[in-house]
Each structure stands twice: as structure tokens, then as C-alpha cells.
């Protein structure tokens, strides 16, 4: 696959120059609206699709208010800790469209909408699943047991919740030999929050594996360069990879792990990768990098396996269409899951947490995920699978 030329681009996903960041700033303005004025705004919006029919508008307004109540209850229940007004306003738009349907279909659509809100905000984000993958390589000698490598990413801690407790229980049960974390420790709402730092450290402190726990930073606005050294200070169970390559040995076989600090600029980060590898490496090489956008450069450099996240799989996916938004320079090309790019295998995980600020704490058809890899030699006569 030929990499795209981004050398003249000035706005990059995952940075403060992205359109998504501008949208988050707009959401920040919405959350400052006083509650009585916001309720009046919702009622005014309810008048539009109901053609100012007072009874219908009042019914639609009650659905708007129910969404607001469900959003406001999330922090009290310890589920998530985002603002309530921005997602309520966002949900009001599809509700307004459904309200234009004739009765009883419009009422049925509103009830289904409430069920989807409960599921997407209260249930799915808190069901961490384990995805199992295998990787075969001719660079490994046959006969050795497979390496059990656990890929984690996009933790986005606001506060420790049942989701983080579930994560730690899963990690302990899976007993990986090495843990690889692809960035985004903090929630975007909590990057300057000392309480969130300490709770993140409490989670990270419990990650252990015989061959090590290796981490890289994620998007610069999330994993701020001035914050991460303090966040990781004293966590001797972790190895923070900063544009470097380390070698682990599994049953006598060397495996290289390369960790690149993500700037979201492929020309910059690709040059860093090139300075480390300089061609086709002899050892099996795993690249730990926050976003999938470096995959074409990684393939050209002879990387065997790239582990990334950042897209969250879109967080909200529609049947047949997939992710509504990926925050990737390649759009939906690398939105979620496993991809083959020449001789490179890329895996883009759905992540564990959710973005932050005014972005909805919602997942739909895209539950949180950790990925357990079994990495071994190629089976005779078979390609890697």
C-alpha cells in the first residue's frame, strides 16, 4: 500500500487543530447554558417537528428531558462523568426527526430511542470483552510455545469504575507474558485532574507480566508531554517507550518491540521509525503506535505487527456502514480490527474507555475491547492466520 503525502497538511486528527476538537469546544459552550434556559431551548426545539402542536410538543419535550435525566444520572451512578447537556442536545436531533412521523410510529420511535439511550450509555460501555488473535511468522523457530501478548489501549480514565475493575480481573485471568499499551491514559476531561492521575496510576500499578509491560503515549492533547512523566513516575512495573526499540526473549527467540511517540503526523513519525529500523529488521518486530495512520510507513520499514487504537472503532457503529467517525487521516480505511498491508499485519483495537469533554460517553455496536495475541512460528505449509 502506498502511503499518502501529508507533508502539506496543517490539520491532523487527534490534535487541537482537528475539526473534532473544534466541535468539542462548541460542546463546552453548550454545557455553560443555565439549566432553565436549556430546558426552554429543548421545548423550542420540540415545537419545530410537531408544528407547534402543544400536546405533541410537550410529549416530545418529556423525551428530551428523560435523556437529560439519564445523562445527569451517569456520574451519580459512577458509570461515566461527562457533561449532560451536550449529549442531550445531540440526541434531540434524531428525536426531532422521528417526531415528524405520523402517530403511532413517532411515539414508538421515541420509546425505541429511549431503550437505545439506556443501552448505549448505561450498558455497552461497561462490558469489556476479550478478542483473541493469532499471528504466525517465519522469523520465529517452530516448536516453541506461542507468546501470549496482551494489547491494551485508550484507557481514558475519569475515575475508577466497574469497567476498570473488570479490566484488571481480565488481565489477571488471561496471564499474558507481555502487555503492550498503545496510548491514551487519561480522559480528555481529566488531563489536568490530580485525582484522575492517582486513579490512573492505581490501575496501571496492577498491570504486570513476566516479560514486561510496555507503554507509549497517545494523542498529545490527551497524554500531555508535561503530565505523563508525573503520571508514570515511580511505576517500576512499566517501561515507557519513547522512540526506541527493545528486545524481549521468549524461549530463546528474540522479539523486537518498537515504541513511537505519536504526533499524528506520518511524515514526522515515519522518519522516526525509519531512523530506528532502517529497512527490513531481522527479528520479529512489533510496532506499538497510537494511531493506525502510520501503517503504510511501518509496512515499508518491514514491521511485522502494528498494534494501534485511537479510533475507538468509532464508538458508535451502524449496521452495514460501520463507524460514523474515526479521527483517522485514512477515514474508514483502518477503522477497527485486523488488516493486511503488504507483509504487515495491523490491528486497530476498539479501546477501553471513551474520549471526554463534550463527546458522548456512548458505545453502540462497539463494546470496549482488549486483545490477546498468540504469536508463534508459521505452521508448515500454512501462512500466518
Summarize the structure in words.
With 385 residues, this protein is α/β, with parallel strands linked by helices. It has two domains: 19-124, no CATH class; 129-377, Purple Acid Phosphatase, chain A, domain 2, CATH 3.60.21. It is 34% helix and 18% strand. It has ten helices and 14 strands. The strands form three sheets. It has a six-stranded mixed sheet. It has a six-stranded mixed sheet with strand order 6-7-8-9-13-12. Strands 10-11 form a two-stranded antiparallel ribbon. α3 (54-76) packs antiparallel against α4 (85-99) and α3 packs parallel to α5 (105-123). The longest helix is centred in the first third of the chain and has 23 residues, at 54-76. It is elongated, with a radius of gyration of 22 Å. The two termini are 20 Å apart. The relative contact order is 0.17.
Question: How would you spell out the order of helices and strands?
Answer: HHHHHEEHEHEHEEEHEHEEEEEE
Please tally the helical runs, counting DSSP H or I stretches of 4 or more residues. 10
* Biggest beta sheet attributes: 6 strands, mixed
What percentage of amino acids are in beta strands? 15-25%
> In terms of per-residue confidence, which ranges show pLDDT below 50 for 5 or more consecutive residues?
none
Q: What's the CATH architecture name of the largest domain?
A: 4-Layer Sandwich
Amino acid at each position: 500500500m502506498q502511503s499518502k503525502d501529508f507533508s502539506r497538511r496543517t490539520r491532523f486528527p487527534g490534535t487541537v487543530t482537528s475539526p473534532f476538537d473544534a466541535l468539542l469546544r462548541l460542546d463546552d459552550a453548550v454545557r455553560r447554558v443555565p439549566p432553565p434556559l436549556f430546558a426552554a431551548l429543548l421545548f423550542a426545539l420540540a415545537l419545530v417537528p410537531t408544528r407547534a402542536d402543544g400536546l405533541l410538543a410537550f410529549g416530545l419535550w418529556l423525551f428530551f428531558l428523560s435523556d437529560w435525566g439519564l445523562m445527569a444520572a451517569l456520574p451519580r451512578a459512577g458509570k461515566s462523568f461527562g457533561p449532560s447537556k451536550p449529549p442531550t442536545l445531540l440526541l434531540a436531533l434524531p428525536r426531532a426527526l422521528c417526531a415528524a412521523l405520523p402517530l403511532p410510529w413517532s411515539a414508538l420511535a421515541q420509546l425505541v430511542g429511549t431503550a437505545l439511550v439506556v443501552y448505549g450509555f448505561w450498558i455497552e460501555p461497561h462490558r469489556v470483552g476479550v478478542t483473541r488473535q493469532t499471528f504466525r511468522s517465519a522469523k520465529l523457530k517452530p516448536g516453541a510455545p506461542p507468546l501470549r501478548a496482551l494489547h491494551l489501549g485508550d484507557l481514558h480514565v475519569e475515575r475508577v469504575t466497574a469497567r476498570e475493575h473488570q479490566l484488571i480481573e481480565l488481565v489477571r485471568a488471561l496471564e499474558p507474558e507481555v502487555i503492550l499499551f498503545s496510548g491514551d491514559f487519561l480522559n480528555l476531561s481529566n488531563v489536568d485532574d490530580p485525582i484522575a492521575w492517582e486513579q490512573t496510576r492505581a490501575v496501571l500499578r496492577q498491570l504486570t507480566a513476566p516479560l514486561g509491560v510496555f507503554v507509549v503515549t497517545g494523542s498529545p492533547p490527551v497524554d500531555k508531554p508535561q503530565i505523563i512523566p508525573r503520571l508514570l513516575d515511580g511505576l517500576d512495573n512499566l517501561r515507557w517507550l519513547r522512540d526506541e526499540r527493545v528486545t524481549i526473549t521468549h524461549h530463546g527467540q528474540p522479539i523486537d518491540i518498537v515504541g513511537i511517540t505519536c504526533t499524528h503526523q506520518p511524515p514526522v513519525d515515519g522518519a522516526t521509525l525509519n531512523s530506528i529500523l532502517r529497512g527490513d529488521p531481522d527479528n520479529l518486530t512489533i510496532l506499538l503506535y497510537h494511531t493506525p495512520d502510520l501503517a503504510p510507513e511501518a509496512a515499508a520499514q518491514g514491521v511485522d505487527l502494528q498494534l494501534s487504537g485511537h479510533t475507538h472503532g468509532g464508538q458508535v457503529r451502524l449496521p452495514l456502514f460501520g463507524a460514523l467517525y474515526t479521527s483517522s487521516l485514512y477515514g474508514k480505511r483502518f477503522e477497527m480490527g485486523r488488516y493486511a498491508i503488504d507483509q504487515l499485519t495491523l490491528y486497530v483495537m476498539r479501546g477501553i474507555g471513551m474520549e471526554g469533554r463534550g463527546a458522548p460517553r456512548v458505545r453502540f455496536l462497539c463494546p470496549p475491547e482488549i486483545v490477546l495475541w498468540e504469536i508463534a512460528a508459521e505452521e508448515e505449509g500454512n501462512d500466518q492466520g
